[in-house]
Design brief:
Elements lengths: L4 E5 L6 H17 L5 E6 L1 H10 L5 E5 L16 H6 L4 E4 L2 H6 L4 H13 L3 E6 L3 H5 L3 H12 L5 H4 L2 E5 L13 H19 L1 H6 L2 E4 L4 H8 L6 E4 L6 H8 L5
Parallel strand pairs: 1-2, 1-8, 2-3, 3-4, 4-5, 5-6, 6-7, 7-8
Helix pairs in contact: 1-2, 7-9, 9-11, 11-12
Bound molecules: 2-phosphoglycolic acid.
2-phosphoglycolic acid (PGA) binds next to strand 8.
Length: 253
């Protein structure tokens, strides 16, 4: 059975003190009212070690939002997968469209990052998704397939079991414009079929595919009710405990 997951992606938000306060509050709220899905928070690097000590890892998983494409050495300013792992984090988000677009992360670079993350015992939340222009041209399926083939389909079946996919249409990220549940389901089912073609039906069935892009408490229930949507990767709404909890609770309905 695949996991239901609600993962937060804080992006470049929250000072260390604000991040600690947010994690503490979430930890308390989820201790009082246990989620019935896996919960993960993706935070900036500087928060990881402190937050790792605060949260109950049985309830909340911890994720970085990136890691280096090199193992170690003279790469000023970079943070390696081994360093991420040493903080107590269990996950890393890779391939986010903001990293692809603003930091020019190519399929090849992401392939290296994924390999290093897995080699260091991290699970990967791997983001894929098309732009508005690509959606309007009707080539969204080709885009997500190419993103998978370019960076994760080199993995063995055993390695691929540590990958969670996050489908995030770029036109829906931070725009308030959500894909409809039907639109999301259609492409999630397609993504699962592509994984089945590559790794077989069982692995495809066991792979969690999250939806991301303006997911909020008011639309999470409808999205998560779809058979191929296994949760969400949440940006803006992960920055407030009430909103994030509202999305987590969508799994209780
Ligand atoms: P959003 O971001 O929820 O703010 O649209 C989602 C994401 O980019 O992960």
């Amino acid at each position: 059975m695949r996991k239901k997951i609600v993962a937060g992606n804080w992006k470049m938000n929250k000072t260390l003190q604000e991040g600690i306060a947010l994690a503490e509050e979430l930890n308390q709220v989820l201790a009082a009212d246990k989620p019935n899905c896996d919960v993960v928070i993706g935070t900036p690097f500087i928060h990881l070690a402190k937050i790792s000590d605060i949260i109950d890892h049985k309830v909340i998983g911890l994720s970085a939002e990136n890691c280096a494409d090199k193992e170690s050495g003279a790469y000023t300013g970079e943070v390696s997968a081994a360093m991420v792992k040493s903080t107590g984090a269990e996950y890393v988000i890779l391939g986010h469209s903001e990293r692809r677009e603003y930091y020019h992360e190519t399929y090849e670079i992401l392939k290296e990052k994924v390999l290093l993350a897995l080699a260091n015992g991290l699970k990967v939340i791997f983001c894929i998704g098309e732009s508005l222009d690509e959606r309007e041209k009707g080539i969204q399926n080709q885009i997500v397939k190419a993103e998978l083939e370019g960076s994760v389909f080199n993995l063995s079946a055993d390695e691929f079991k540590n990958i969670t996919i996050a489908y995030e249409p770029i036109w829906a990220i931070g725009t308030g414009k959500t894909a409809t549940a039907d639109q999301a389901e259609e492409i999630h089912a397609y993504i699962r079929s592509v994984i089945a073609d590559k790794y077989g039906k069982q692995i495809a069935e066991d792979t969690s595919i999250l939806y991301g892009g303006s997911c909020k408490p008011s639309n999470a229930g409808e999205l998560f009710a779809k058979p191929d949507i296994d949760g969400g990767l949440i940006g803006g709404a992960s920055l407030k405990v009430a909103d994030f909890k509202g999305i987590i609770d969508a799994w209780k309905k």
